[in-house]
Amino acid sequence: MRWRTARLAALWALSAAPLAWPASAERLADSSRMVLAILPWLVAAGIPRGIPRDAEPADRPAHNRWTSLALALPCAALGLRLDVASGFELRERLVVAAVSVVLAILLAVAARRAARSPATHARHAIAWLVLVPGLPLLIVALHEGGRPLLGEPIGVLGALASASPLAWLWRQIAESGDAFGLAASQLARVGGPVLGCVGLWLCSVAARERLEAR
Amino acid sequence: MLFAVLLSTMLAAPPLERSSRAWLAEVALEGPLGGVVLDMGASGETRLVGALVSGETRRLVVPLPARTAGERFTPSIHVARLADWTAAEQGAARFVRWLEPEGASIEDLPPGLRARARPPVARDVVRPSVAALLTLAALGVATLGLAERGRTALLAALVTLVGTAAITWLEPVRASEFEAHVILIEADSQSAAWLEVEAAPDRLDVAMAIDALSIEVWPPGARLVWRVPLSAAPVLDVSGRDVRLYRLSVFDPGEERIDPSHNRFAPISQAWVREGGEWHSHGAWPLGQPLPAPLEREAEGPPGWLASGLPQGPSILIARIDPQRSPRPAGSATSVYLRLANFD
């Protein structure tokens, strides 16, 4: 089995686990299993890619993308089915799924473009690490460990963390609401993560152009 | 040695079982604030949800989740800032005092009524069917196999779409060992007061006079969170993780009593009577009518949890009442039962 297939198999297992794990039905009764199924794919979509060396055969990104989609879609569909049966609003979950796809595409495009040169790759990797998993994890650490001493971790740090696509998706695990107020509220909430993704992409483009101009 | 054992038993912490988790306290609030948390440590917390604007003051009686009367220490208070409030002015919250319980108490009930087992409840769980899981596994293996062999994306897309449609079409399994929200009226024809027990897993809405509030939880020491709206809405809720919550209230049925000659309580959709150790099904029992004769055909007995742990000897009535026609407010309860001892 090639490394690429093993990586996809691991992602698929992570995505299917919240659906197939026997205790999940009780433990995750209030949580969106669709979001839990999507989460590994969103994280993987933006992970900084290694820069291919000339000696290596060219990877087939299009093939990878379609295979990822083919693996993610059934898990998300089963999660959606379970969410709706558990009382989540169908339209609201569909909007969450659609926004997740957009975020994944933006993150993937940024990662692919950044992988074309060492300079952009390094900058993208740092930006991704800070913005996507870094800030939300820091907020969780401050919330869990620092709350008695520091109070609620709000302010600039909280605002920056809310721009993380990962934090946005994590919030959707338990949130459910009115489907119609949704368009506006989701757009407002999604604004931060989308800007974050676009920012990552623009960073990678700008850095690449500067490199090419030298 | 024996003396030491006895002494240590006496000094040991009192059992936590069946102690109310709604100890009332008075708090004073002063705006501007965007919510208050009264933290009782391991016992849990009470969250006052809502906002007070600048200059607004409020004095509230709120439930706190202390585990025993001895644990009623002053809670630590966290005040949240009002959202979008930019001025330096910050509201305050002050704990005033603990209140002693008033009104009819569970302790006034006969021991037999108090000691009855609480209803087992469990949340309705939704899980994928075996067919859906097998389809998901088959799709995963097929897609990875196609990717490994470098087959065309078109084939993978086709397999995925067909499989996804099948997964979406397959109905999830809805299963629960017990009912999710039950009201049980514990009664004894020799007792002046009866006990109403509302049971639900993990979360219970409480829309009633706060001074008559008594909440039990299983497991007994579990951490609980009370949410009290600062608005005029009189509905509080209490929640915990992996717990069963019981709201208890003592009430006087007055004239609405029930005996074999006359049903003055409620239209009963199914009645079972235990006489001489045998359960007999009597079918539906309309309001104002005498108890119908036992059904001749073999009928299903009462639910096992209702028929167990009852006193031996006296005749017992177990009745299922339609929640919409219950004389007591049933809220969102899916079932209402009456369990009456000394039914004669």
Number of strands of chain B: 19
The most extensive contact between chains is: A-B, 34 and 32 residues
Low-confidence stretches of chain B: 1-16
Characterize the largest beta sheet of chain B: strand count, sense, and whether it forms a barrel: 12 strands, mixed
Largest sheet of chain A: none
Which band does the percent of strand residues of chain B land in?
35-45%
Termini separation of chain B (Å)? 51 Å
| Morphology call of chain A | globular
Helix content of chain B: 10-25%
Number of DSSP-assigned strands of chain A: 0
Structural class of chain B: alpha+beta
Strand content of chain A: under 5%
The succession of helices and strands of chain A, N to C, reads HHHHHHHHH
Low-pLDDT runs of 5+ residues of chain A are: 55-59, 176-188
Radius of gyration of chain A: 18 Å
Oligomer: heterodimer
Could you tell me the radius of gyration of chain B in angstroms?
27 Å
What does this structure look like?
The complex is a heterodimer of chains A (214) and B (344). In chain A, helix 6 (118-150) packs across helix 7 (156-162). By secondary structure, chain A is an all-alpha fold. The model of chain A is unreliable at 55-59 and 176-188 (pLDDT under 50). Chain A has helices at 3-20, 24-27, 33-46, 61-85, 90-114, 118-150, 156-162, 165-171, 182-213. Chain A has nine helices and no strands. The relative contact order of chain A is 0.14. Chain B is of the alpha+beta class and 344 residues long. Chain B contains five helices and 19 strands. Chain B has helices at residues 2-11, 111-114, 130-149, 153-169, 304-307, and strands at residues 23-30, 36-39, 44-49, 57-64, 76-79, 92-98, 125-127, 173-175, 182-188, 194-206, 214-218, 224-229, 236-251, 258-259, 262-263, 268-275, 278-285, 316-321, 335-341. In chain B, the strands form four sheets. In chain B, strands 2, 3, 5, 9, 10, 11, 12, 13, 16, 17, 18 and 19 form a twelve-stranded mixed sheet that branches. The chains are: A mainly alpha (214), B alpha+beta (344).
